[in-house]
Design brief:
alpha/beta
């Protein structure tokens, strides 16, 4: 699924600011950096996973200026964002399949103007049998890809 994701993102990844919500091991964000993203912010609620991300980026020799690692629930991270914080080009949200996707996606939509650059996108990885709404406020789904048991839903801010 990661290869499929980055095949789709290839035209937008170079120089992008990437937010990896529910980052886990950080594999997706690290892949974004390896494909030319300028900066990745990793967010995970687990201190253990954030320490693993830090170890992984250190092992790979990734510069500290290229990353941010935040130990927080996705919703807490989003609520604490300030209007002056630099937005992201790409937001990747891959929570545990049993999570409340809608609450976080509504927060992303609520904060879209300050969270996502105008031409940015939000990508949600979810269980293929979990049907996400086509829209969350101003976020509109424009594409869905299914592979195995997973799906990727792509959203943009409607103009």
């Amino acid at each position: 699924m990661r290869e499929t994701l980055f095949n789709v993102l290839a035209p937008q990844i170079e120089g992008a600011r990437f937010l990896d919500l529910c980052a886990g091991t950080g594999a997706v964000g690290i892949e974004a950096l390896s494909r030319g993203a300028a900066h990745v912010t990793f967010v995970d609620q687990s201190r253990k996973m954030c320490a693993l991300i830090e170890a992984n980026v250190s092992t790979l020799g990734i510069e500290k200026s290229e990353i941010g690692i935040v130990t927080a629930e996705a919703s807490d991270f989003l609520r604490k964002r300030e209007p002056s914080d630099t937005p992201f080009d790409l937001v990747f949200f891959d929570p545990p399949y049993a999570a409340d996707y809608e609450a976080v996606l509504n927060l992303i939509a609520e904060k879209a103007a300050q969270l996502i650059f105008e031409d940015g996108m939000v990508i949600v990885e979810h269980y293929k049998k979990r049907d996400l709404p086509d829209a969350f406020r101003t976020l509109k789904r424009y594409r869905t890809l299914k592979q195995g048991d997973s799906s990727l839903s792509f959203y943009r801010v409607a103009s």
